[in-house]
């Protein structure tokens, strides 16, 4: 079909040279696909290189500790991806002797591997005729064919997958999948694509109908919750501090943080200082409390906006279970806390 031929020709002329594209080994392909969920290639590339250096095989990843994995993942966000990655590596190494499943249906059974990732590995590693459907694919196909299906509906993925399957050359599904994703990432971008230089500018239905900026249709709006975090950064006479692991389900599971006072709204010095005096470090005398920044740091997550303040608390004597700066820097933290440690505690 003309669409597929034009698309693949464009891809061969414009594709980026990415390390996971130069192999059919499912391990680096799987790594890259998990890392690039909700992450741009430019942001994910250094992490991919760090992981493949630290863990060149699935066995190396399997034998690493969860803390090592989370530390290397630090800053990439969506930390459940890293925990699932680690568990799946352990399963592949121990139960499957290090050999990845070689088809879509079996890949789908792996923890953390959804339809899109299973399709990507199956087609790129094993040339299985299965279409990938991600945001790029929704965008390219909805614009080219003027499809007004709401992509947040459960049925949308089936509809777009069926269309992609029809368009896909059955003798080379891998190149088609790579091409359509790359085209969405580089050319048919979400906002203000340069349609004048597009290879489809004579056949794209959305362009003819001046609907490019209206497609794909996506109705649901994410409700964002505001939360107010006050982190208490203690320092004793030996400059030791105190941290704990977030073990509750929810954001940042199994990462470390300073003692946290969460409030219903942004609070000023008097309120927070009183809470610290009454609730924390009862075995030590607090010599001073200070706000590191008057304005809170806004840290945006997909469904939450965190308004974060750090409060330095100097205490007399030694803190029970305190840790030194050296140990502090080896542990995995949410990136906003890691950045604070690097900047303020050096």
UniProtKB/TrEMBL annotation:
Enzyme Commission designation: 3.2.2.31
A Pfam family: NUDIX_4
Keyword Calcium: no
Cofactor: [4Fe-4S] cluster
GO MF, one annotated term: oxidized purine DNA binding
InterPro entries reported for this sequence: A/G_AdeGlyc_MutY, DNA_glycosylase, HhH-GPD_domain, HhH_base_excis_C, HhH_motif, MIG/MutY, MutY_C, NUDIX_hydrolase-like_dom_sf
Listed PANTHER family: ADENINE DNA GLYCOSYLASE (PTHR42944:SF1)
Record's protein name: Adenine DNA glycosylase
């Amino acid at each position: 079909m003309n669409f597929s031929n034009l698309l693949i020709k464009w891809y061969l002329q414009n594709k980026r040279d990415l390390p996971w594209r130069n192999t059919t080994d499912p391990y680096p392909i799987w790594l890259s696909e998990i890392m690039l969920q909700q992450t741009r290639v430019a942001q994910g590339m250094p992490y991919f290189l760090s992981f493949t250096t630290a863990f060149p095989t699935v066995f190396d990843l399997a034998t690493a500790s969860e803390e090592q994995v989370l530390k290397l993942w630090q800053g990439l966000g969506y930390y459940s991806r890293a925990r699932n990655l680690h568990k799946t590596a352990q399963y592949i190494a121990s139960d499957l002797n290090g050999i990845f499943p070689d088809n879509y249906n079996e890949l789908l059974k792996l923890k953390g591997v959804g339809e899109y990732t299973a399709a990507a590995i199956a087609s790129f590693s094993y040339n299985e005729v299965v279409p990938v459907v991600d945001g790029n694919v929704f965008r390219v196909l909805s614009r080219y064919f003027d499809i007004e299906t709401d992509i947040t509906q459960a049925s949308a993925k089936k509809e777009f997958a069926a269309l992609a399957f029809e368009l896909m050359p059955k003798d080379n599904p891998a190149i088609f999948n790579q091409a359509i994703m790359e085209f969405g990432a580089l050319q048919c971008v979400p906002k203000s694509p340069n349609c004048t230089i597009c290879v489809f500018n004579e056949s794209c239905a959305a362009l003819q109908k001046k609907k490019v900026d209206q497609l794909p249709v996506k109705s649901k709006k994410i409700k964002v919750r505001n939360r107010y975090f006050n982190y208490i950064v203690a320092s004793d006479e030996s400059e030791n501090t105190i941290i704990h692991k977030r073990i509750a389900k929810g954001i940042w599971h199994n990462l470390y943080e300073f003692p946290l006072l969460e409030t219903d709204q942004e609070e000023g010095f008097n309120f927070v200082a009183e809470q610290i005096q009454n609730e924390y470090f009862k075995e030590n005398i607090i010599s001073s409390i200070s706000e590191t920044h008057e304005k809170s740091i806004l840290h945006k997550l997909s469904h939450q906006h965190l308004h974060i303040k750090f409060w330095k608390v100097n205490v007399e004597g030694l803190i029970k279970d305190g840790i030194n700066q050296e140990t502090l820097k080896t542990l995995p933290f949410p990136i906003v806390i890691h950045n604070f440690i690097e900047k303020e505690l050096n």
